[in-house]
């Protein structure tokens, strides 16, 4: 029973003020998908009765089985507002019909790249918070991401049904809980406040907070109740809203509002009196099957039930009654329509975040004004597997212009540099498609402000891209997405049958496409590597690889491999010297660890090769205590020219030095990628070129002489500076009841983890534990933890930092030494490290 | 062993007399160089003064190949090659090979072959290092005898490969695919490729050629044929010899086969070829890496092997076809210092004989691949399916007219983990919109080079050597216009590089 057709939908797409693009974000298991279902129900695609049971957006079989969302899914909804409800709407609009492009995103931290991809193409976010569990780790992460993208949030306090049925808390207590949840969310939002976005905190009295029960399909905002009571009390709706939240008390006995509780037993908080209690009454009446009492009450509320519905009893009756009285869709959709920005409004301030090029060119202006007549600017944020195997839809958002079937577009990949031909293709869009529930509908074209899926571009887009018209050669791409998680867990895959290799290659290609985060690469040893954000993520990826992308061909998956980094503990014990192959050139070098925080600053891009030297030396001297002159003598960063290691020139008065700079840099790029200890990347090492002796003839100090020598000198400097290994460490957040704490500590101890924060959630018996856990120990951590706490503890792991292993990797028996020999064995290197004498020469 | 016999003096004399050669080059590898005076003396005493003998050593490339350039320096008419040989066909001079005679315990070897037979159900194919070829007849006899003794009917299940011959005459025409090989007894086998242009078949069979009576293989001086209903994978390969480049060649070429090595010195069987398999995986990585390269250096690693010029030409065309830039470099045997003089090259293709083709070391700045690997990496739409060809002669045949597969898909780079654009071969780009060509070039001329030069240099982003040099921070000496007055002179260093005079002073 589809209430609307693709044509109708297409019509509203042109009304840029009547569009809302929004994503549903939350911590895992706070009820996003279920809530989304009740919204979809309003669009008429699934019957209202089964809303809450189907999970429309969990389209994959494994999603349904595990009960978690893995991929973000988009759905376009159509909603018609009544004139009456719109009368308070001040913004621009054309007619009463609204199009809501909704993206349901996964909550598990392993899939937060999907959230990032969803946020990029939406303007608003519905933040779902479990009213009992409150604001959790992932809630904070996604909120931070959303605000970073300039996405305006609204909040819904979900799982209200738990308050009434499971916990049966009284009104005041419930109010306190909700208040705390909202406050916590507001604290986070205030932290990441953005001037252009304005005040993003949410207030129930302003209608930006909803209270919902996704499972039962009902929800309300204070607006609903305010409307109801405004007439009765004869006050203004806005005034009524204010009274329904905060320190406003009403005593039915005296019929007076006060701002303090008078202490009389009949005096209750406005919210409790007028919102919470009526709902509780209805629910309890339904649950107790007191139908004789129920019908008059409903009549008073203006709720009419169909006759066949009147025969329902218990929970089913309650669900039906609540859905009719306070339908989730109207409350939530109206909240979004009222308080979330339309593309036209949002793109005005988002353009700065989105566009890489100058903010006054025609492309920036077209995005800013959401101009359907302007040049096409479209960002593809993810690839969605299509029903025919191996093909993908390119899913994204049109920021300006129109994309239509058959249009020739320029595809600018993530490595595209304006003016060059790198990572650039011109192809035509075979078909433009919009999603309506589970099915796709082809449409002629899609104007700006909407999400769209395109067919025929998948062979040129890996994960994301910017599309523009064929002739727009001077358009800059839209800024690449920044992910909050990084792919730290890696496995090597190979096929069981050698001749399946082409299948594996093809499969990996498709896998890389299907997920925004997964990285498919090849090791120096020739092994194919799949890297993901966590164990669960990898598990899903490998399952997809084998079953969907390789047609079931068997693969062998290695144990998870963690990459390490090499660093140094101290300054080199002496200046090391290496001679060139012809013995005519000598390089003298030293290595030292970088100042604390410097490597992170380089990672974040605060300091990098493209900085203005003055700005760089300012940061270095002010924050890291560098000498101002020295800061100007940084030769390069590495590996890959941007990594967190550097070469600094400390020479004084050396002739021809600038001539060999490029060669030294080349040697450094090479060496910093493959450190001397285990050929892992180096990190946080600063190499100082102390002195050089060069041959007077240019031919004898060419690249051939200097590059290998620089590499040897760097290795020698590293080995004399007490080399150490850095291991990646997860930040683990665990939520569990008190009795499970013992088990958690036990498992963490056993896994070399350490707890640094333990906090009881106010108002709940739950504890929040934060701990550091080495990634290498994290495999099987969740299952061990579940076993040790009989399933009460649920961990979330996010890569946090690199931690130095205290043992000496050069000492054969030590823990680090053991690790090094394991790594070298895996890489097929000589098990013994190359000794220092190979790299260092004597005069 | 008898010196005379080991160096096959009398056979050499016969050969030289038969050919009526008057100037003869004797090529020794380093390890046999110490015997060269005795060999030369023995030959001279047999041949008399009419024949001039020249001893050559320290070949510019691998000592397994005939050093034709060295020989032509002395105007030699033929070369006698001693020691380990790769048996690559020569291009100008006739050559005779003396493999030497390594000692082998034939009884032990035969026993082990019998042992292998009883433990496997596959037929055995015996391959060996050429230095063991002298013992082949004896070995055959002993094995046959022991099989008869044990009353088994495994006789036909042991096959032996034969030595192609110990004399190679230069190919008449290097560009044709026909090499003439004259075997010992003088009969001529015209080894034309019957299925010459069929790319797939040749690749599939490695060095195999389909003949009327079966598939004929030729590898490193050995030749054998198997019935056409058999595949080489059906055989158990039994290699007699040390773990050297010839063995690696066999393992890589027949990487799908089960291979057992008999070490004649240690008298034991070794079944572990994991090291070679790892090499194969590593080569696979290098191929993937080569796909990302923009500038390719072609290293000339042989000046003797027949057809090297045409394979170089073929490589150049291939690289150009893939939209990459190539430079041809002749530098003798490559080492890391020599290669680092060309930091702009992202990958090198090493054209050499099959047994010196694999060069892989951590010390090299850029990977070095073989022509076969280059064909995989630069040929559009080609994928590696496990076969491996080290000998470029087979490659010359296999990739006749380049199959232009119509895949329009962008190339996925596993090094970078994403799609990479390949520069379209030039004709595609040029044809479009000639009228706008001028406008386009002028448009680019004013483009700001926003990319940091470093990234061009070290991420392989440069398209050509000149682009790479333009990105270097050192652009040569700047002429200083101010301050034109000559500067006062400074006294430079004196002494030797291991420690200049002033440094010695300091130490004291």
From TrEMBL, chain A:
GO terms for biological process: translational elongation. InterPro entries: EFG_II (IPR041095), EFG_III/V (IPR035647), EFG_V-like (IPR000640), EFTu-like_2 (IPR004161), G_TR_CS (IPR031157), P-loop_NTPase (IPR027417), Ribosomal_Su5_D2-typ_SF (IPR020568), Ribsml_uS5_D2-typ_fold_subgr (IPR014721). It is found in: Cytoplasm. Keywords: Cytoplasm, Elongation factor, GTP-binding, Nucleotide-binding, Protein biosynthesis. One of its GO terms (cellular component) is ribonucleoprotein complex. SUPFAM superfamilies: EF-G C-terminal domain-like (SSF54980), P-loop containing nucleoside triphosphate hydrolases (SSF52540), Ribosomal protein S5 domain 2-like (SSF54211), Translation proteins (SSF50447). Residues 17-344 form the Tr-type G domain. It comes from the Eukaryota. One of its GO terms (molecular function) is translation elongation factor activity. CDD domains: aeEF2_snRNP_like_IV (cd01681), eEF2_snRNP_like_C (cd04096), EF2 (cd01885), EF2_II (cd16268), EF2_snRNP_III (cd16261). Pfam families: EFG_C (PF00679), EFG_III (PF14492), EFG_IV (PF03764), GTP_EFTU (PF00009), GTP_EFTU_D2 (PF03144). The keyword GTP-binding applies. PANTHER family: EUKARYOTIC TRANSLATION ELONGATION FACTOR 2, TRANSLATION ELONGATION FACTOR-RELATED. This is (wild Malaysian banana) hypothetical protein.
Automatic annotation (TrEMBL), chain B:
Its cofactor is [4Fe-4S] cluster. Pathway: Protein modification; peptidyl-diphthamide biosynthesis. Pfam families: Diphthamide_syn (PF01866). One of its GO terms (molecular function) is metal ion binding. Keywords: Iron, Iron-sulfur, Metal-binding. GO terms for biological process: protein histidyl modification to diphthamide; response to oxidative stress. It comes from the Eukaryota. One of its GO terms (cellular component) is cytosol. Belongs to the DPH1/DPH2 family. DPH2 subfamily. NCBIfam families: diphth2_R (TIGR00322), DPH2 (TIGR00272). Required for the first step of diphthamide biosynthesis, a post-translational modification of histidine which occurs in elongation factor 2. DPH1 and DPH2 transfer a 3-amino-3-carboxypropyl (ACP) group from S-adenosyl-L-methionine (SAM) to a histidine residue, the reaction is assisted by a reduction system comprising DPH3 and a NADH-dependent reductase. Facilitates the reduction of the catalytic iron-sulfur cluster found in the DPH1 subunit. This is 2-(3-amino-3-carboxypropyl)histidine synthase subunit 2. It comes from Musa acuminata subsp. malaccensis.
């Amino acid at each position: 029973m589809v209430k609307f057709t693709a044509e109708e939908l297409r019509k509203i797409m042109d009304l840029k003020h009547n569009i809302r693009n929004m994503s549903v974000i939350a911590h895992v298991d706070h009820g996003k998908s279920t809530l989304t279902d009740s919204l979809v129900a309003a669009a008429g695609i699934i019957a209202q009765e089964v809303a809450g049971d189907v999970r429309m957006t969990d389209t994959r079989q494994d999603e349904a089985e595990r009960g978690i969302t893995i991929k973000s899914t988009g759905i376009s909804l159509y909603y018609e507002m009544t004139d009456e409800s719109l009368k308070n709407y001040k913004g621009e609009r054309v007619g009463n019909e609204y199009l809501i492009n909704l993206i349901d995103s996964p909550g598990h931290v392993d899939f937060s790249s999907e959230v990032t991809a969803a946020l990029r193409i939406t303007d608003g976010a519905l933040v779902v918070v479990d009213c009992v569990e409150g604001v959790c780790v992932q809630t904070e992460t996604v909120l931070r991401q959303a605000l970073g993208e300039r996405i305006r949030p609204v909040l819904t306090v979900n799982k209200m049904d738990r308050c009434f049925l499971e916990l049966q808390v009284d009104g005041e207590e419930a109010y306190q809980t909700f208040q705390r949840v909202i406050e916590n969310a507001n604290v986070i939002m205030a932290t990441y406040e953005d001037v252009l976005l304005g005040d993003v905190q949410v207030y129930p009295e302003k209608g930006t907070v909803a209270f919902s029960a996704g499972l039962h399909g009902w929800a309300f905002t204070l607006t609903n109740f305010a409307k109801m009571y405004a007439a009765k009390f004869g006050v203004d709706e806005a005034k009524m809203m204010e009274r329904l939240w905060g320190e406003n008390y009403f005593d039915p006995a005296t019929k007076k509002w006060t701002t303090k509780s008078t202490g009389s037993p009949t005096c209750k908080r406005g919210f409790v009196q007028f919102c919470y209690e009526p709902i509780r009454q209805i629910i309890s009446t339904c649950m107790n099957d007191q139908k004789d009492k129920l019908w008059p009450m409903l009549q008073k509320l203006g709720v009419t039930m169909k006759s066949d519905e009147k025969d329902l009893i218990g929970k089913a009756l309650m669900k039906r009654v609540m859905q009719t009285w306070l339908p989730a869709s109207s409350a939530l959709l109206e909240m979004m329509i009222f308080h979330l920005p339309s593309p036209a409004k949002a793109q005005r301030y988002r353009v700065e975040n989105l566009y890489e090029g100058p903010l006054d060119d025609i492309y920036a202006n077209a995005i800013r004004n959401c101009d359907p007549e302007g040049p096409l600017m479209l960002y593809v944020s993810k690839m969605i597997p299509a029903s025919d195997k191996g093909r993908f839809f390119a899913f994204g958002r049109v920021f300006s212009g129109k994309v239509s079937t058959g249009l020739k577009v320029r595809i600018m990949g993530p490595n595209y540099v304006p003016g060059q031909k790198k990572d650039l293709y011109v192809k035509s869009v075979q078909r433009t498609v919009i999603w309506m529930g589970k099915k796709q509908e082809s449409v002629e074209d899609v104007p700006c402000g909407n999400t769209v899926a395109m067919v025929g571009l998948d062979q040129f887009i890996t994960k994301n891209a910017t599309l523009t018209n064929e002739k727009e050669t001077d358009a800059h791409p839209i800024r690449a997405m920044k992910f909050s998680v990084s792919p730290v867990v890696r496995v090597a895959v190979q096929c069981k049958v050698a001749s399946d290799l082409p299948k594996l290659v093809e499969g990996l290609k498709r896998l890389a496409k299907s997920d925004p985060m997964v990285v498919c690469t090849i090791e120096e040893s020739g092994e194919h590597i799949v890297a993901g954000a966590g164990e669960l993520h990898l598990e899903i990826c490998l399952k997809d690889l084998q079953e969907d992308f390789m047609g079931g061909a068997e693969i062998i998956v290695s144990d998870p491999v963690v990459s390490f980094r090499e660093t140094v503990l101290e300054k080199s014990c002496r200046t090391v010297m290496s001679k060139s192959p012809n013995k005519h050139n000598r390089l003298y070098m030293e290595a030292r660890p970088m100042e604390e925080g410097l490597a992170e600053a380089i990672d974040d891009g605060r300091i990098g090769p493209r900085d203005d030297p003055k700005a760089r030396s300012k940061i270095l001297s002010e924050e890291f205590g560098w000498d101002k002159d020295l800061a100007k003598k940084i030769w390069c960063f590495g590996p890959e020219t941007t990594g967190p290691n550097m070469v600094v020139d400390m020479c004084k008065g050396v002739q021809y030095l600038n001539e060999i700079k490029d060669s030294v840099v080349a040697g450094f790029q090479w060496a910093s990628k493959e450190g001397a200890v285990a050929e892992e990347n180096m990190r946080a090492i600063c190499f100082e070129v102390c002195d050089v002796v060069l041959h007077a003839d240019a031919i004898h100090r060419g690249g051939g002489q200097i590059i290998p020598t620089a590499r040897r000198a760097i290795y020698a400097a590293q080995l004399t500076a007490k080399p150490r290994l850095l291991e990646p460490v997860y930040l683990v957040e665990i939520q569990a009841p008190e009795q499970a704490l013992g088990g958690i500590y036990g498992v963490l101890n056993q896994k070399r983890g350490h707890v640094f924060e333990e906090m009881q959630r106010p108002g709940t018996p739950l504890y929040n534990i934060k701990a550091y856990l080495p990634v290498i120990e994290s495999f099987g951590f969740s299952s061990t933890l579940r076993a040790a706490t009989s399933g009460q503890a649920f961990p979330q792991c996010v890569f946090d930092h690199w931690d130095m292993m205290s043992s000496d990797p050069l000492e054969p028996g030590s823990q680090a030494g053991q690790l090094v020999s394991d790594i070298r064995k895996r890489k097929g290197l000589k098990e013994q490290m190359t000794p220092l004498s190979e790299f260092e020469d004597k005069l | 062993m008898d010196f005379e016999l080991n160096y096959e003096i009398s056979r050499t004399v016969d050969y030289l007399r038969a050919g009526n050669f008057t100037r003869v080059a004797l090529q020794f590898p380093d390890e046999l160089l110490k015997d060269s005076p005795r060999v030369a003396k023995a030959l001279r005493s047999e041949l008399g003064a009419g024949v001039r003998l020249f001893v050559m050593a320290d070949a510019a490339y691998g000592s397994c190949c005939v050093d034709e350039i060295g020989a032509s320096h002395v105007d030699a008419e033929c070369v006698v090659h001693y020691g380990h040989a790769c048996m690559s066909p020569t291009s100008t001079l006739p050559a005779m090979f003396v493999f030497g005679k390594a000692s082998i315990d034939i009884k032990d070897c035969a026993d082990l072959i019998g042992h292998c037979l009883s433990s496997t159900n596959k037929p055995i194919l015996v391959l060996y290092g050429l230095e063991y070829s002298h013992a082949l007849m004896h070995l055959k006899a002993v094995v046959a005898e022991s099989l008869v003794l044990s009353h088994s009917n495994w006789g036909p299940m042991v096959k032996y490969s034969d030595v192609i011959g110990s004399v190679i005459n230069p190919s008449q025409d290097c560009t044709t695919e026909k090499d003439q090989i004259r075997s010992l007894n003088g009969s001529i086998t015209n080894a034309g490729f019957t299925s010459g242009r069929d790319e797939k078949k040749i690749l599939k069979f490695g060095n195999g050629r389909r003949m009327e009576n079966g598939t004929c293989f030729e590898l490193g001086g050995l030749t054998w044929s198997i019935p056409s209903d058999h595949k080489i994978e059906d055989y158990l390969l039994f290699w007699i010899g040390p773990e050297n480049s010839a063995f690696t060649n066999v393992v890589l070429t027949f990487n799908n086969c089960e291979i057992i090595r008999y070490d004649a010195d240690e008298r034991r069987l070794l079944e572990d070829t994991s090291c070679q398999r790892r090499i194969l995986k590593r080569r696979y990585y290098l191929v993937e890496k080569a796909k990302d390269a923009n500038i390719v250096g072609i290293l000339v690693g042989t000046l003797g092997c027949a057809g090297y010029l045409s394979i170089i030409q073929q490589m150049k065309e291939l690289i150009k076809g893939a939209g990459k830039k190539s430079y041809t470099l002749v530098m003798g045997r490559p080492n890391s210092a020599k290669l680092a003089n060309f930091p702009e090259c992202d990958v090198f293709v090493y054209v050499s004989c099959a047994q010196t083709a694999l060069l892989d070391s951590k010390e090299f700045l850029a990977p070095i691949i073989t022509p076969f690997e280059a064909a995989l990496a630069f040929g559009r739409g080609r994928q590696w399916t496990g076969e491996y060809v080290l000998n470029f002669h087979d490659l010359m045949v296999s990739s006749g007219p380049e199959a232009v597969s119509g895949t329009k898909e962008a190339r996925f780079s596993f090094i970078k983990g994403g799609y990479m654009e390949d520069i379209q071969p030039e004709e595609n780009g040029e044809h479009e919109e000639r009228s706008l060509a001028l406008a386009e070039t002028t448009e680019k001329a004013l483009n700001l080079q926003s990319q940091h030069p470093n990234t061009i240099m070290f991420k392989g982003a440069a398209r050509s050597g000149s682009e790479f040099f333009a990105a270097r921070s050192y652009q040569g000496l700047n002429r200083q216009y101010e301050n034109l007055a000559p500067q006062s002179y400074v006294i430079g260093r004196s002494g030797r590089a291991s420690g200049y005079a002033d440094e010695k002073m300091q130490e004291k």
